[in-house]
Amino acid sequence: MARLALLLVLLAGTAAAGPPDAARQDQLRHLVRQDCGSCHGLRLTGGLGRPITAQALAGRDAEDLSGVILDGMPGTAMPGWRPLLTEDEARWIADYLLTTETQ
User: Which domains does the chain have, with CATH numbers?
Assistant: First the structure.
């Protein structure tokens, strides 16, 4: 039930274009921790999926990374999030992952 509520909140945020506002950024941080963390580890240091810390992603391009977020990685367990995220939101997540050190 909580997951359905989160999905509805995320879907509601996809209608707006442009960079996410502060409230949406909080929702996206939660998505990274909750949903990305379920495969990439709670600290994003790896698990089923590879590590996605800033250190592990060093040298990656934000545009390329946002494409992976939106479209997934064929042949892997990485799903595409295009139905739930705008391109601007995926880019924000990519920038967040590339610049935020996780603890």
Answer: 22-99 (1.10.760.10)
